[in-house]
Amino acid sequence: MATSTKTFPIVYQTPEWVRLNSLKYLQPISAGNMSILLKNGIVVTQNPKREVLEGDVYVEDGRIVELGKVRTEAERVVDCSGKVVIPGLINTHNHVANTLIRGCADDVHLHEMMERSFDFDAKVTRRDVQVGALLGCLEMMKSGTTTFLDAFYWEDEVARAVREAGMRAFLGWAVLDEELSTQRGDPLDNCASFIGKHKQEELITPLVFLMGAYVCSEETFSEGKHLAEDEDVLLHMHLSETRKEVYDHQKKTGMRPIEWLDKIGFLCDRLTAAHTGWVTIGEVRMLARNGTKVSHCPVSNMKLATGGVAPLPEMFENDVTVTLGTDSPISNNGLDMFETMKFCALLHKADRWDARVFDAQKVFDLATIEGARALRMEDRIGSIEEGKRADLAVLDFNVPRTTPCGKSRVVSHLVYSCNGSNTSTTIIDGKIVVNEGRSEHLKEDVILERANEIAVELFEEE
Q1: Residue 202 zone, left/alpha/beta (φ > 0; ψ -120 to 50; rest)
Q2: Among 196, 24, 209, which residue's Cα sits nearest to residue 127?
Q3: If we measure between CA atoms, which residue out of 286, 232, 277, 216 comes closest to residue 258?
Q4: Parts of the chain with a pLDDT under 50
Q5: Do both 41 and 104 map to the same domain?
């Protein structure tokens, strides 16, 4: 492995641009955490016993304080009769600002999708990125997602949107070899500055995002890992997504991407790798040996016809932590994690000719507690347990698509029957951000209107 001698700046230099007046997207909300009582619901705890309880959840100071029959009064009471309370869903791979190009590259191969994405990148402004990220946050919160991992350039504008939305997010500035980048300055320096600015924030956790082995040299991987270790943050990357990526790298280096990353010492337990659809059993064992996690993106991979299917059964057998991601709205169109869970289950059943290959409970684990584990947050989020942060979603099951339902069917309905529209209330870090299907503090109509205006400006759409 190449030895890195690069040092990174720790002081963020504020870029010189006219900042968007974000107040136009926000409406007044009550300051501080209020105590909340979710009353008379079915509670899918995701605790170690995977208990499903009937009763209440009491939240105070951003934490889950009590489960069961709660007699303590709260400042806000949410009637959960006929509803199900779940841990907030965790999306471990996204490019959220690409909501603005949703539908612009449908029914095409990956390379053509990327070309259209690059055309967008050449036109988009920082203000546009913020609006796209706000739109994506709104979509996720209204469909039960409370935490997501994002990778983009101009990630400071994504951070601004995340802060305004009140979401929990792990954000990585895109890093690639400088000569291949259109960014101003060295991408690694930009990433280091981003980390320096956001490392102390409560809900935003910066990380290092290496775009992939096709645009990052051994030196860039070495320096990226060095930066992550120095700042004690996570790593993220695209890995073995397509056959072309794998065989091009093998032709160039004599090794498949995972083999090469193992050889140069990059694989580690800080890393969550997105896709991994074209991997061998030997590479699965390399991931396991190094503690590397996987973000499985079944909807995106099927839509782009990448051909490979991540070997999840073998990953489970080798104790690889597997999570779920939607990927970009240009390669998926939606950010609904319920849809992703269902596609995940069906893809692997069909691929293995086995309806029992893994069940609804295991799939739900990937979107909750396993996602938290990959982000090193399993002691704080991913399950409903006393003392954990209150990241919760309330789903209305009193609708045709989830009727009839009893405790024994709840988890199955979550994976096979629900979609994001079942979400009625979303709570992040003890604050209600969506109530009865409407955002508590984002001006939805203004965000939607501005997103449509940007589409006209960028793509001359009517």
Answers
A1: alpha
A2: 24
A3: 286
A4: 1-5, 8-21
A5: no
Residue 15 within a domain: no
pTM over 0.90: yes
> HSE (CB half, 13 Å, CA atoms) of 82?
10
Same structural domain for residues 79 and 123?
no
Whether residues 351 and 392 share a domain: the answer is no
Task: Output the CA–CA distances (angstroms, integers) from residue 182 to 7, 78, 118, 187, 275, in the order listed.
Answer: 22, 48, 10, 9, 25
Q: What digits encode the pLDDT tens for the residues 57-68?
A: 999 999 999 999
pLDDT at 18: 33
Q: 159, exposed or middle or buried, with CB in 10 Å at 0-12, 13-18, 19+?
A: buried
Q: What pLDDT shows up at residue 29?
A: 57
Q: Are strands 36-44 and 83-87 parallel, antiparallel or unpaired?
A: parallel
Please give the tally of structural domains in the chain: 2
- pLDDT of 24 reads 75
pLDDT at 23: 59
* Domain of 275, in residue numbers: 89-374
CATH no. for residue 50?
2.30.40.10
